[in-house]
Amino acid sequence: MYSDLTSNPRIRPVEAAHIGDLIRIAEETNLSPWTAQNYLDEIKNPSAIMLRLVGEDNTTMGFVVGRTVIGGDIETQLDAEIYNIAIDITQQGNGYGQILLTGFVKICSAQQVQKIWLEVRESNRKAISFYEKNGFTTVQTRNNFYSDPREAALLMRLVLAPAQE
User: How many whole angstroms separate alpha carbon 85 and alpha carbon 110?
Assistant: First the structure.
């Protein structure tokens, strides 16, 4: 699944040994909390796509967690969902989120995913702008989706180009 990303020394699959790094970055960036068990379960899920961005010393600088799902109007269509994407707060602003998102999209394209979905807090203008810059569009608002604080989520979608035969 990650074979075409191995030439890029910065992107690697997430393994169980990296869960502590993911939890730390998620807490620092105020993501909805996942437990170590949540991440471990996702690692074991064959439809999961979990990438981490590593520095020269192999430290985790960011991560993305998502999975492929049956989607669309027909059961044969494959979609993907992004559950979490975050960059260590000391590494933000360097284009690393772009690297992770591009890696995720590349894997999805290779698996013939047709659409990628995500939810983002309505107040997270920086993230919304980032996703829009990458071709995502808002398709729905989900009121009171998030708690602590209670807030609406924007459901965003990226339509991928059909695979060339």
Answer: 20
